[in-house]
Specification:
CATH class: Alpha Beta
Number of domains: 1
Mean pLDDT: 88
Order of helices and strands: HEHHHHHEHEHHEHHHHH
Largest sheet: 4 strands, parallel
CATH superfamily: P-loop containing nucleotide triphosphate hydrolases
Number of strands: 4
Strand order of the largest sheet: 2-1-3-4
Shape: globular
Radius of gyration: 20 Å
Number of helices: 14
CATH architecture: 3-Layer(aba) Sandwich
Structural class: mainly alpha
CATH topology: Rossmann fold
Helix content: 40-55%
Distance between the termini: 33 Å
Strand content: 5-15%
Length: 315
């Protein structure tokens, strides 16, 4: 998105009720550490979400899709009155067409945001209200939250201004498997535009390029790379590593995943392309792509993704 070409839209969001000072993305140090699961779509983030949620220590809602837009528009919204700013941010999340999958009423959060003390009046704390409210819905009354929206991978630098204290788990998967998964998912979901092997491979490259650049800004202690293939072939060991990184309590229930708990995740049971998260871990999935992609298609994917796929030793 170009700031210049969209200036009219941004400015129209807020010429009225301009405050005397601007608000910050994040104005204080925080002890809480939100989890941001990043990576290309179709790389296993829904499975990882289902696993971590089964541990009952962290809440991760369905995908939000609006973090990048909020981070960019905040450059202009920050000059609004506090109440108007809260409306803009919360509206962006709540009016998104798939917010219903969160299964919550966000109406009370507007007043709670208005009433935040001066020391907490920043963008992070508005979003934090929304995510902690989602977490509080659980029977365990969880307070820690995360996000697993693959689209966020396109806006990592902007988003990091909101959550500079976040921990990042980077899921990476063989681009040949990702390409096949995208093409299959697009057949049943018009929102997924990667309907060809080539388009899907380009999407994978864009995600990995964005993450590679973003890693240069990160403290290594806040970043963990996880191979989807390891999550399938060595689930206990791999998930223990993720939990250690996030300071979460590991349990075998995370790998086994009670189906009734998974069915309460909002979008998982709604969309067919998430149905793998409902099934038992199957190591055979690692090479399943090879049965459904021709040699010519494999070569096209390899040519497009070579730079980053070699770094991950996929080929």
């Amino acid at each position: 998105m170009s700031y210049i070409s969209n200036a009219a839209q941004f400015l129209s969001d807020g010429c009225a009720q301009i405050s005397k000072s601007s608000y910050h993305y994040n104005q204080a140090c925080h002890d809480d550490k939100p989890l941001m699961i990043i990576g290309c779509g179709r790389s296993g983030s829904t499975l990882l979400r289902a696993m971590l949620m089964s541990g009952q220590d962290i809440a991760i809602p369905p995908e939000s899709y609006v973090w990048g837009a909020v981070a960019r528009r905040f450059m202009f919204w920050r000059f609004l009155s506090w109440e108007r700013l809260c409306d803009k941010v919360l509206d962006k999340f709540v009016t998104f067409q798939e917010f219903h999958t969160w299964g919550m009423d966000a109406t009370p959060l507007y007043q709670r945001a208005y009433d935040l003390p001066e020391t907490k009046r920043d963008l992070y704390n508005i979003i934090n209200l929304l995510y902690t409210a989602y977490a509080a819905q659980s029977d365990q009354g969880m307070t820690r939250w995360g996000d697993k929206t693959p689209l966020n991978t396109r806006s990592l630098s902007e988003i990091s201004r909101i959550v500079p204290h976040a921990q990042y788990v980077h899921l990476v998967r063989d681009p040949r498997a990702v390409a096949l998964s995208y093409v299959r998912a697009a057949q049943g979901n018009k929102m997924i535009k990667e309907a060809t092997i080539e388009d899907a491979a380009q999407r994978w490259v864009c995600a990995e390029r964005s993450i590679a650049a973003f890693k240069q800004q990160l403290n290594a202690q806040n970043y963990l790379q996880v191979r989807f293939e390891d999550l399938l072939t060595r689930p206990q060991e791999t998930l223990r590593g993720v939990c250690d990184f996030l300071s979460l309590t590991y349990s075998d229930e995370m790998v086994e995943r009670d189906k009734s708990a998974v069915l309460g995740l909002g979008d998982v049971e709604l969309y067919k392309h998430h149905d793998r998260a409902l099934r038992e871990i199957d190591p055979e999935r690692v090479n399943e792509w090879s049965k459904h992609i021709s040699v010519a298609q494999q070569k096209r994917i390899e040519k497009i993704t070579l730079q980053y796929a070699q770094q991950y030793a996929y080929f």
